[in-house]
Design a protein that fits this description.
This protein is an alpha/beta fold. Helices cover 52% and strands 12% of the residues. Belongs to the GTP-binding SRP family. FtsY subfamily.
Length: 324
């Protein structure tokens, strides 16, 4: 089973992944709908007061101000145009508008998740601040790719933290894939170069490079990531094919700030939003997708390897609006 077959299969609804998604979004859903229920209680129509309440609910669910205003404007237009009158119809309106918004920024054709399907090896450079679940995400991706019958090479280029190098080595051992590591306090670009070269020499399908998660200064971050890219391009001219930014969904607005910093520093073209199971801030997925126009490719809804899921916008919205 190849890469695309595996991920195509994973995007199809299956019972286990649906249950994981429902469970992972439980806190967001409970918080959101308890607030929404109170907002429309006793109301017979969608009026300005209901919309003001909805605006507050979306903002406090970390959807973000700009995206919230966009959603409210669309709902106001539909209420006016289609003569929606009852507050009970608000759920339906909201679900439809959020689905549309996500559709504008997230391709669902599986091959469009990969920027260069002909590339071999397909090189993924993973970026993000420390503590967002970056190394764990790499490990889970390596496991999924490997199980799909792909040859995977990992590169431990977050050389500023011994824990990051050691953690990635443990994942490589657990998943049974090779890893290139020069240890701590070594040149990250050199690690990336050797990992990509090993990927080419060994006929690997995927090379995943971990990078340092420091945001100490924007200039240093930009320079470091640029250097890593330049040395990889000595081996594969169009590498990396994917720059995957990992964000911790539980940090809410901090995730927006991190997305802003990293999209300035490098050409991020995919997002993974982790730790959604531990937070009521799942609305951050909607806001970040809308604000940065970068596809959310993966979401993390639990600890298990299979709890890192391909982001399926329809399944996400269905789960968010699922009544108990």
């Amino acid at each position: 089973m190849g890469l695309f077959d595996f991920f195509s299969k994973e995007t199809k609804e299956n019972k286990e992944s649906k249950e994981s998604l429902d469970k992972g979004l439980e806190k967001t859903k409970d918080s959101f709908f308890s607030k929404l229920g109170k907002a429309v209680m006793g109301k017979s129509k969608v009026d300005d007061e209901v919309l003001d309440e909805l605006e507050d609910i979306l903002i406090t669910s970390d959807v973000g101000v700009e995206t919230t205003l966009k959603i409210i404007k669309r709902i106001e237009e539909r209420v006016s145009r289609d003569k929606y009158t009852t507050a009970s119809e608000l759920d339906k309106l909201l679900k439809e508008e959020i689905t549309k918004l996500l559709a504008e920024n997230n391709a669902q054709d599986i091959k469009s998740f990969f920027t260069n399907t002909a590339a071999k090896p397909y090189v993924i450079m993973v970026v993000g601040v420390n503590g967002v679940g970056k190394t764990t995400t790499i490990g889970k991706l390596a496991s999924k790719f490997h199980r799909a019958g792909n040859k995977v090479v990992l590169g431990a280029a977050d050389t500023f933290r011994a824990a990051a190098v050691d953690q990635l080595k443990l994942w490589a051992e657990r998943v049974n894939v090779p890893i290139v590591s020069h240890g701590m306090n070594t040149d990250p670009a050199s690690v990336a170069y050797d990992a990509v070269k090993q990927g080419v020499d060994s006929g690997a399908d995927i090379v995943i490079i971990d990078t340092a998660g420091r945001l100490h200064t924007k200039v240093n971050l930009m320079n470091e990531l640029s250097k890593i890219k330049r040395v990889m391009q000595k081996v594969i001219p169009d590498a990396p094919h994917e720059i995957l930014l990992v964000l911790d969904g539980s940090t809410g607005q901090n995730a927006f700030i991190q997305a802003k910093e990293f999209t300035r520093a490098t050409e991020v073209n995919a997002l993974a939003i982790t730790k959604l199971d531990g937070t009521a801030k799942g609305g951050v997925v909607i806001g970040i997708s809308d604000q940065f126009k970068i596809p959310v490719k993966y979401i993390g809804v639990g600890e298990k390897v299979d709890d890192l899921q391909i982001f399926n916008r329809q399944a996400f919205v269905d789960s968010l609006f699922k009544k108990k």
